[in-house]
Amino acid sequence: MKKVFSYILGLTACSLYAQAQETVYPARPQQGLVFLKNATIHVGNGQVINGGTIGFNGGKIIAVGANVAIPMDDVKVFDLQGQHVYPGLIAPESSLGLTEVESVRATNDYEEVGEINPSVRSIVSYNTDSKVIATLRTNGILLAHAVPQGGLISGSSSVVQLDAWNWEDAAYKTDNGIHFYMPRLMARSNPFGSSAAGPSNDAVKAAMAKIDEVKAFFRAAKGYLAEAKHSETNLKYEAVKGLFDRSQKLFIHCDLVKELIVATDIAKEFGFDVVIVGGTDAWLITDVLKKQNIPVVLAQPHSLPVMADDDVDQPYKTAAQLQKAGILFCISNEGFWQQRNLPFNAGTAGAYGLSKEEALSAVTLNPAKILGIADKTGSLEVGKDANIVVSTGDILDMKSSVITRAYIQGREVSLEDKHKQLYERYKYKYDLK
User: Fold this and answer.
1) Cα 416 from Cα 138, distance rounded (Å)
2) Which of 60, 100, 208, 276 has most Cβ atoms within 10 angstroms of its Cβ?
3) Rounded to an integer, what distance in angstroms lies between the CA atom of residue 326 and that of residue 320?
4) Which helix (H) or strand (E) holds 261?
5) Residue 174 and residue 111 share a domain
6) Does 299 share its domain with 355?
C-alpha cells in the first residue's frame, strides 16, 4: 500500500512540476516612463499616425502623436522601426476562464441549475490560471467579457483583463450586464413526418411562453423595486436593479427577425439599455435598431447563413451593412479557446465592405463602448489605460500578424503560451531548424 501511495504521490509531484514549468506570472505594475517610437499607430477610432510615438506612465497613456517629445532621463525608449501599434483587442461574449476542457465537467463553471438566475455572478468563477488565456494574448486580445450561460436569465457578466493573479485582480468592470437567452422562434422540421399542427408548431408556442415568463419576472421585479421597504429581500429582484436605473445593460441573445422584434419590444416596455447578441438577421431591421439606438454584438462571420435563401456570404457582409446604417456593433467569436481568432474574423469583415480601420474598431473601440469601458480603453488616447499591442504586420491578417509586445495598464505582459511551448518542444525533439 505504501508503494502505491508513493507512486501516486510521485506522479502528482511530476504533474505539478510539469505545470509549474509552464507557469507565466502576472506582470508587476509599471515602473517609470515608457515610450514606443517610430511606429505606425492605429488609434482605434479610425485615425492612423505614421512614424508616431506613444508614451505611458503609471499605466496611463500620456502622449500620442507624430511629434512627441521624449524626456532624456529615467525613461525606457523602444524603437519599433515601423512596426504597428494597436489598442488591446477586446473579446466580447466569451466563456473564457469559466471553462477549460469542454468534455470534462469539473472544469465547466459557466451555468447554474434553473431558468432564471440573475443573481449569479460570472466574475467569481473566473479562473485566471486557465491555460487558454495566454493563447489570446499572443494574438493581441488583452480584455474579455466573461459571460454566464444556461437557462433564460443566466446571470451577470463582467469584463476582465487577461493578466492577473485572481478574479479580483482581473476585474475590469464587474457586473456590467444581465444576460437573457431567448428561445428560438422557429418551427423546426419534423423528421418523422408529423402534421403541421404537431410538435414543430408547439415549439414556437412553448418559446413564446418562456418569453412571457421572463417578461412577468421583470414586471414583478419592477413592482418589488418600487417598494420603499420590503418584508423580505428577494435576491433575484435585487440583482436586476441595475437594469431599471440603466447602470447595467440587458444582453439579449437572439438571431432571427421575430426574436429581434421581441427584443426591441422588451426595450420599449421596460426602458432597458438593450444590446443584441448574435444578431444574424440584424441587417434586415437596421431602421428599427437605429431608431431605438440598440447596438449589436455580431456572431462570428465564419458561419453559414440561417435561412436557405440568404446569400451564402451574408454573415461576412452583415458588419458592413450595420456600419452603413449607422448602428453601433462589434464582432465576437463564440466560446473560449476560439477567441484567439477574433482579429481574423474582423479581418474577414474588412474584406467584405468594412475599411481596415472600421474593422479594427469592431474589436477595439466599439466593444469598449458597448461594454461600458470606452472611458478607460478601446483606443490609444491620452488619459486612457495603456492597453497596447505591437505587431510586425497587420493584426487583422493571419499571415502577417506577429505580436512582439503587449501591455496591459502599462505592464508588459508575457507572450508565452502552451502552443509556443509545444512548438519548441517538438522542434527540439525532431531536430527541426
Assistant:
1) 7
2) 276
3) 10
4) helix 257-270
5) yes
6) yes
What is the domain extent for residue 302? 89-182+228-376
Given a contact cutoff of 8 angstroms between Cβ atoms, the answer to whether 129 and 153 are in contact is: no
Is the domain of 44 the same as that of 104? no
Largest CA distance in the chain: 81
The mean pLDDT of 210-215, rounded to a whole number, is 97
Angle between helix axes 342-351 and 314-325 (nearest 10 degrees) is 80
Return d(Cα 251, Cα 226) in angstroms, integer.
23
pTM of the model: 0.90
**Do 39 and 77 form a contact (C-beta atoms < 8 A)?**
no
- Please indicate, yes or no, whether residues 144 and 51 belong to a single structural domain of this protein: no
Asked if residue 48 is part of any domain, the answer here is: yes
Per-residue pLDDT at 433 exceeds 90: no
Distances from the Cα of 57 to the Cα of 63, 251, 365, 381, angstroms: 10, 35, 21, 13
**Domain-located, residue 357:** yes
Tell me the CATH number at 81. Answer: 2.30.40.10
**Residues 284 and 170 reside in one and the same domain:** yes
Helix (H) or strand (E) holding 21: helix 2-22
Residues whose CB falls within 8 Å of the CB of residue 147, separated by 6 or more in sequence, listed in order:
93, 94, 95, 110, 122, 154, 157, 179, 251
Residues 369 and 392 in one domain: no
| Whole-angstrom distance, CA of residue 153 vs CA of residue 149 | 8
Q: How many domains does the chain have?
A: 2
Are residues 119 and 78 part of one domain?
A: no
C-alpha cell at 269: 416596455
CA-CA distance, 256 to 193, in Å (whole number)? 25
Does the pLDDT of residue 14 top 90, yes or no?
A: no
* Structural domain ending residue among the three candidates 376, 391, 415: 376
What lies within 8 Å, CB to CB, of 371 at 6+ separation is 90, 92, 145, 159, 173, 176, 177
